[in-house]
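Marked as duplicate of an earlier ticket. Keeping the data here for the record.
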Amino acid sequence: MSYVGMCLPQEKINYLTKYSATALKLPAGSHAHVGGRGVTLTEDLFATNANLDTGNLTANTLYYVYLVLNNETPKLVLSLSAVAPTGYLSFRLLEDVNTADDSAFITWSDVVPVTVLTHTQVNSLAGNQGLGVFSAGSYIYQRIANQLAIRGKLTCGTTTSAVIMIPFPLALVSADNSIIPSLYHSLDVHKTSQQATNYTALISPSVGYFSLGMYAVGTPNSLTPSTGTAMMENGAVISFNLTVPIQSWLAKSVRS
C-alpha cells in the first residue's frame, strides 16, 4: 500500500495496517496536515467497528478511512462516503477498506505485494460470464498506486454465447469516463491450444470486470468484446496480464 502522491513532501503517513479482525491501526510517528495544521501522532490510532461516522458496520461493504480532528484531537473514522465523513469539518481521506462476510476488515495492506485466488475463488466472484466454470488455474492481483494489476492463467469450462466478463476482486470498479473515455486495450491475452493465439484485454469505464477481444489482422475485432463461444473452445487455457485504473483509488483527496 502506497501513499505516494497523497502526502505533502514533509509528511510521513505510516502504513495503515490491520491490527485485528475488526480494527485498523495508524502507527504513532505518522505526520499529516489536517484542519490547516500539522499533526504528529504521539500514540497509535485505531479505527474499529465502533468508529463509524454514522450507522452500523455491515458485511461486504466498502468503507473509507479518514483522519479527522475531533475537538482538535486526531482520530480515525470510517465512513461510507468517499467525499466527507459525517459530523467532521477537518479531515483527510487516507484509504479505503472492505469488510468480509463476518464484517472483518480487508485492507490493501493485506494484499501487497500480491494475492493469489484459486480458480474456485475466481468462479465465486460476481459477474463471471461467457467462459463457463473454470477448472484450473490462478488469478493474481496487486495494487500499484491507483492501478489494479491482474495476472492469471485459467482453464475455461463450457463456453456460452454471453459476452466474456472476467470480474475484478473485492467489488472494485474501473475509473469513470473522465479517465477511461471509452473501451480501450489494456495489454494482452494468450490462449494455449494447438496453435497459440493472442487476444486483447479490454477495459470499459465504471465496470467491475474486463472483457476479451479477438485479435484479427485487418479487422476491428480486437476492440470489440467477444462472446465465449466466438472466442474460446471448451477447455481452452488462457493467460492474461493487464492493468486497470480503479475508481475509488483515484478519489483520494484532502480537505483542510
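See parent ticket for discussion. The chain has two domains: 17-109, 113-250.
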